[in-house]
Predict the 3D structure of the following.
Amino acid sequence: MKYKLSLRQKIVITFFILFSIVILVSILGFLNYNRLNTTIHILEKKESLLNNILESRRYEKNFFITKDISNLKIAIEFLNKGKIQINELLKEENSDFLKKELVLIENYEKEIKNFITKYNSSLSLENINMTSIQEKGRLATIELEKAINEKRSEIKKIIQSSRIFLLISISSFVLLAIITFLFLVKNVNKPLKNIEKAIQKIVSGDYESIPKIKTGDEFENLAENINNLLKEMRLRNRQLLQKEKMAALGTLTSGVAHEINNPLNNISTSLQIILEELEGGDIKLHQELLEEALRQVDRAKDIVKSLLEFSRESSFNPKEVNFKTLIQKTLKLIQGEIPTHLQIEIKVPENLIVKLDSRRIQQVLLNLILNAIQAIDNNPGKIIIGAETVNNDQDLRFYIEDTGPGIPKENLSKIFDPFFTTKDVGAGSGLGLAVSQGIIEQHGGKIEVESELNKGTKFTITIPKAIIV
Ligand SMILES: Nc1ncnc2c1ncn2[C@@H]1O[C@H](COP(=O)(O)OP(=O)(O)O)[C@@H](O)[C@H]1O
Ligand SMILES: [Mg+2]
């Protein structure tokens, strides 16, 4: 597991990559901008240099029109300005071209100066070569113009490449954003959704382990911890279940003792009669008495067997059972608890076959019936146990209704809480309804209560998809 990255590491790495790309793009953008800036700067300087040379040429031409020598002096002034500019430019861009340009300007200047000396001595244009001066001027401008045009196209190229660069960086940003989004969905959202689903299952009472998450990060740990918690909860739940069973058994003991005492008494009486009339007695009567004793032994065995069955701890195990038989078996367990003035009515179809964990549902029935008996107490009353199919004969609904005193409104929200009881210490554990609710939720069902003071209480249980057709 060690080679896998934690969520924090994954996020840090993603951010680092994003950050590096932003820095890289910024640096490249900045370099491009700088290059553009210096190119424009040099272009401007060269243009101003060209202007100065063009000015000096204009004055040179003016001289030939006006014959005023001061024009040539101004031309030299412009050339001097140009020389200063070239020297400045040379500091920034030490190129052969600039050196050559400087020589050309100097040549042009020298030619003008020569011309001035010659003109001053003769004061006429005869014998003076005028084409040479024009040629030198032309040479000084032509190369410069060429260089300026080159710079212009260079600027165009830089702008074009910046455009492409911008396009590439925007699309790679979009791509990265999509990748980051997908990464978050896969590495954060999906595991979170899985855990949410798992927790919802837990909330609905399903304590089975949640599926393992194999992301190698904090989520894997979280899922593992949730599973440990669930294991602990399953254990506690089992203990609680067992505790409640024992509590219910405690309540049953006196009744069961009475139940077993009856057959024992009958057996004892039968055996006494046989013993007394052993000699010369009526064989037929003896046979009948022994058969009766055997029947009573079977009855006691039956009771002990169901008691053992009930108290045994077992895993969740849904099986097909006849629901009416299940109710009758349960009532047999608590026969001794039912007072004579209490009437029990069963409204369950004969052939209602259901699939559920019969032992656990038996525990629910037992809890609810015992609660009803205890609520009615020693007063005359009636308990109705009913069952029907609902939802297109798919779901089982059964109810236990009593004519007891009802449950006060303020208690209705508490009765399913573990250890909530209104009974005397030792009489009630407060676990019956909590455990029953747990068992029903294990079956994916729900338990509801309606109660009216001085009228009675009705617990209704619905178990989905329990009906076997
Ligand atoms: N049929 C009922 N009629 C009136 N009150 C009831 C009935 N069933 C349950 N209760 C109330 O709910 C409480 C909790 O029931 P339960 O969880 O079975 O614990 P216990 O029976 O040990 O008190 C009872 O103490 C009682 O106050
Ligand atoms: Mg109870």
User: Anything to note?
Assistant: The two ends are 50 Å apart (CA to CA). Residues 367, 371-372, 375, 402, 404, 407, 415, 420-423, 428-434, 457 surround adenosine-5'-diphosphate (ligand 1) (CB under 6 Å). The chain has a mean pLDDT of 87. The longest strand covers residues 381-390.
